[in-house]
Design brief:
Rossmann fold, binds adenosine-5'-diphosphate, about 675 residues, alpha/beta, globular, GIY-YIG endonuclease, 4 domains, single chain, binds zinc ion
């Protein structure tokens, strides 16, 4: 019997290990093996599914080859990663410094072994779709929209992977431009990827695109059930589905013949994955577009400084929509200073609302219109405080105050999820005077029910919304006017379009403005603009009420129209340039962890010192730290950070390699976050 030629392959396995493994295979048994294929391989004592990174390699030296194990089996090529997605993962793993194995597996369908399940539209969603279909008359773009679209089409002919920044005030009709651009791509026989920042938004946008494009659309995000996800993955890969509306992970979807990528609300921080594979989907979109030779539209009312700077450098084309559609005016902004006007005192509740706010909300409700109330979660989680000594109950694993859930009667850690009983007395001074402080969406709901006549309140936050179904139900109920007040955190901010909402309340602007982060002002502007943009999208003029202590901040002045946004951006850019912050550097965070604080401190300081020693004076100025992480301790691990502002990718990689080496020597667990967003 003649054996076929023995070849070798490099295989990535889904383990957080920065190595590839060698396996052998017989050319005549496993045919045409290539990068992106899935294989079953022996790994330790078990079998795992791995992804081929390189195949067809010649036999290494005879001595080495004996030790090498053989690939057990090739998995149906139906499940292989397309070349484009494989390359995208490879690029991402390298840039974000994450093991290739794990990075690759964020792009795969769930394993072929999982059961298949299908899900149709709920009855409710169908009914809504039909209704909307009836309502939808053929629309034509207005002049600004049309000019933007024409520019996209013509410029893409000149350079197929052109990038556009569609900057349009909220309600200016950016989505209509996306739709027309998508139509165009579909006409050319191509597929379309639409990224949105929030899961809560995907189904609303999906409906809108579906009606306009008359083609099946896949929703793509982490909350989609596994069975459905697999079915969709295969349909997308085969070209049966050509349009995806999805959250950041959709950037790895196996779309074929991609003709357009849209990144809606491109400034949004949720495009950055904050754990494990810490990629930025907007930035990867630009890379994928290069691979696919297709255009990208980045849309926002308040673009990131990164994108604005690229416009200045001529790398991105700016398209502007300066007016709300059909010239509906932007809402009127009213400031309510909590210094001048203390919150309402009411016998039944202690509240965070000023009297002016309550009156304004009441008036809106009385007119039969709707209100949205935005609460910035960061500053407002509830906690239990001792009135006598100021003690706050913190998580015993992490260094943060526990959140108090009235309804469930428990304390819960937002970071590690551990639950605690509500203490009956202070653990520091034994006093019984314990008090729930701060305000969560749950408390606001209670307060509003008491303070507002006829309040029918819905909440949109992570605790309430545990499934896609519930989320859609809440949004539907609000749209169907079953409630007149919707309270929410970040989820509320994003592009929901509710024409009956004429009043938006920002409960406290302060926390947003004061967050310790070089992006604080930029992000406050983005968030506040977005929230404000929810008001007055229908026929009636809207209003925005901003409560806060420090309302003289430039960002607030932009909202009230006292300060020009462009001028503010110029100032921010100048500051960033001077301090070497992005977009003028590649910012990277090295976070070391250890369970013993003193140990950690010593080791990190030693690392920083050694590193400084190797850097030039000029480079040293760009190394920050070590400093305690904002969340000093999480899950029993203390955390210290070093930051480096690298001039370019090469410098980023060399310094990172050094830091990794040092962490290894010091035996510290290290996470690298390139272009980090959160503190
Ligand atoms: P944005 O995405 O910029 O926030 P949208 O695309 O949601 O804005 O548009 C805001 C509102 O204006 C929506 O209700 C939308 O249906 C309407 N609109 C926008 N463009 C048109 C158009 N060309 N014809 C009819 N209605 C439009
Ligand atoms: Zn915890
Ligand atoms: Zn006490």
């Amino acid at each position: 019997m003649v054996n076929g030629l023995v070849l070798f392959a490099k295989v990535a396995v889904p383990r957080p290990l920065d190595v590839l493994y060698d396996y052998s295979y017989r050319e005549d048994v496993i045919l045409g093996l290539k990068a992106g294929d899935l294989v079953k391989v022996p790994f330790g004592r078990t079998q795992v599914v791995g992804c081929i990174v390189e195949a067809g390699l010649p036999v290494p030296s005879a001595a080495e080859s004996v030790k090498i194990k053989e690939i057990t089996q090739k998995i149906d090529p139906e499940f292989s990663l397309p070349e484009e997605v494989f390359k995208l993962c490879k690029f991402g793993a390298e840039y974000y410094q994450y093991p290739l194995g794990e990075a690759l597996f964020s792009a795969f369908a769930p394993s072929p072994e999982t059961k298949k399940a299908t899900r149709g539209l709920s009855k409710k969603a169908k009914a809504r779709q039909e209704l909307q279909q009836q309502n939808r008359t053929t629309r034509s773009l207005n002049r600004e929209q049309d000019q933007a679209l024409e520019k996209i089409k013509s410029q893409s002919l000149v350079k197929s992977d052109s990038v556009f920044l569609l900057q349009g005030v909220t309600g200016s009709g950016k989505t209509e431009v996306y739709i027309e651009a998508a139509k165009h791509a579909l006409h050319l026989g191509k597929s379309v990827l639409i990224l949105v920042p929030e899961i809560a938004l995907t189904s609303q946008l999906k409906d809108r695109f579906e009606q306009a494009l008359h083609t099946p659309i896949a929703l793509w995000h982490s909350a989609i059930a596994e069975g459905l996800r697999q079915v969709q993955w295969l349909k997308v890969k085969s070209g049966e589905i050509r349009v995806i509306v999805g959250a950041r992970s959709a950037i790895f979807a196996p779309l074929v013949n991609l003709g357009l990528i849209v990144v809606d609300e491109e400034h949004d921080a949720t495009y950055k994955q904050e754990e494990r594979f810490r990629y930025q989907a907007r930035d990867l979109a630009l890379y994928r577009a290069k691979l696919a030779s297709c255009p990208v539209i980045l849309g926002s009312a308040t673009p990131s400084l990164e994108s604005i700077q690229k416009v200045k450098e001529g790398k991105i084309h700016l398209l502007e929509l300066k007016q709300r559609f059909s010239a509906r005016p932007l809402p009127e902004v009213k400031l309510i200073s909590l210094i001048e006007e203390a919150p309402v005192v009411h016998p039944e509740v202690k509240t965070v609302f000023a009297l002016k706010t309550i009156r304004a909300v009441q008036a809106v409700i009385d007119r039969g219109e709707q209100v949205m109330i935005y609460l910035n979660r960061r500053g407002f989680s509830q906690f239990v405080l001792c009135k006598d000594c100021g003690w706050i109950k913190k998580c015993s694993n992490c260094s943060i105050s526990l959140t108090h859930y009235q309804r469930k009667r428990e304390l819960c850690c937002h970071v590690c999820g551990e639950k605690f009983e509500i203490p009956s007395r202070c653990e520091q001074c034994q006093s019984h005077e314990l008090k729930g402080m701060g305000s969560g969406t749950e408390t606001l709901e209670e307060e509003l029910k008491i303070l507002i006549n006829g309040a029918k309140v819905l909440r949109l936050d992570r605790e309430m919304i545990t499934s896609q179904g519930r989320l859609e139900q809440t949004l539907d109920d609000f749209r169907d006017l079953k409630a007149n007040i919707l309270i929410g955190t970040q989820m509320l901010v994003k592009g929901h379009d509710f024409p009956k909402v004429t009043c938006v309340v920002i409960v406290s602007a302060d926390m947003l403005l004061k967050w310790p982060d070089f992006r604080a002002s930029e992000r406050a502007l983005q968030t506040l603009t977005q929230v404000a943009g929810r008001s007055g999208r229908g026929e009636i003029l809207g209003e925005v009420l901003i409560q806060g202590y420090d309302l003289g901040h430039p960002v607030i002045q932009i909202l009230t129209g006292e300060l020009d946004q462009a001028q503010f951006i110029e100032g921010e850019l100048a500051l960033r340039r001077e301090l070497h912050y992005p977009p003028f550097s590649r910012f990277v965070r090295y976070r070391a962890q250890h369970e013993q604080l003193e140990h950690l401190k010593q080791k990190v300081e030693r690392m920083a010192q050694a590193l400084r020693h190797e850097l030039s004076d000029e480079q040293q100025a760009r190394l920050l730290g070590p400093s305690e992480a904002l969340l000093q301790r999480v899950k029993n691990q203390y955390r210290y950070d070093l930051y480096f502002k690298a001039k370019n990718v090469t410098e980023l990689f060399t310094v990172s390699a050094r830091v990794k080496k040092m962490a290894q020597i010091e035996d510290l667990q290290l996470t690298v976050d390139v272009d980090p967003y959160s503190a």
